[in-house]
Amino acid sequence: MLKIVIFFIFSLIIVKISWPDILNIHSRKFYRFFAFEFLFLLILVNCGYWLQNPFTLFRMITWMILGGSLLLAGYGIYLLLQGGKPQISGNIETTTSLVTSGIYKYIRHPLYSSMILLGAVTLIKNPSLLATSLFSVATVFFYAIARTEEKENILKFGRDYAIYMKRTSMFFPFLF
Question: How far apart (Å, rounded) are the C-alpha atoms in residues 19 and 34?
Fold first, then answer.
């Protein structure tokens, strides 16, 4: 019951953040809503397994990957705030400059990469058909957000972004 209440509160927060664009299938906020919903469901499904046998080598590796995921997100946000010159202070969605340094030199979407890593770590803590399905759907939605954002960035930054897309990976350096 507590998990349902937590999920409901989380969903309300995401709806508030995404409103009114959540109703527009062409908006990144539409896809982001579903990506975060499925990711959060995955976390709720597997959260009971996070602390089981916390000091085994496998669990310690998953904690290190989780930490790396959080660092990746933090570093990506920092670079957007510093180099992206947001129109609205503190709002990374209003950047006015294309950021291609730091982690952005290697991947275009480190924030989404970090969420995919978070989902993967959550999945492997207790793989099941339900967890695998939630992770897969969340990943598809993160891909959809990235593709939508890339269309917006081509309109915003033009040829510079198109060139940037050709020389960097979408989520993981040298892979994808």
Answer: 13
| Those residues with Cβ within 8 angstroms of residue 108's Cβ, 6 or more apart along the chain or in another chain | 146, 150, 164, 165, 168, 169, 170, 171
- What tokens does 74 get? 């933090």
DSSP E strands, the chain = none
In tens, the pLDDT along 45-68 reads 998 887 788 788 888 898 899 999
Q: What is the dihedral of CA 46, 47, 52, 54, to 10 degrees?
A: 110
Distance of alpha carbon 107 from the chain centroid: 13
- Contact criterion met (CB below 8 Å) for 123 and 131: yes
Q: What pLDDT sits at residue 176?
A: 62
The torsion angle over the Cα atoms of residues 30, 34, 39 and 42, rounded to 10 degrees, is 170
| CA atoms of 48 and 87, how far apart (whole Å) | 41
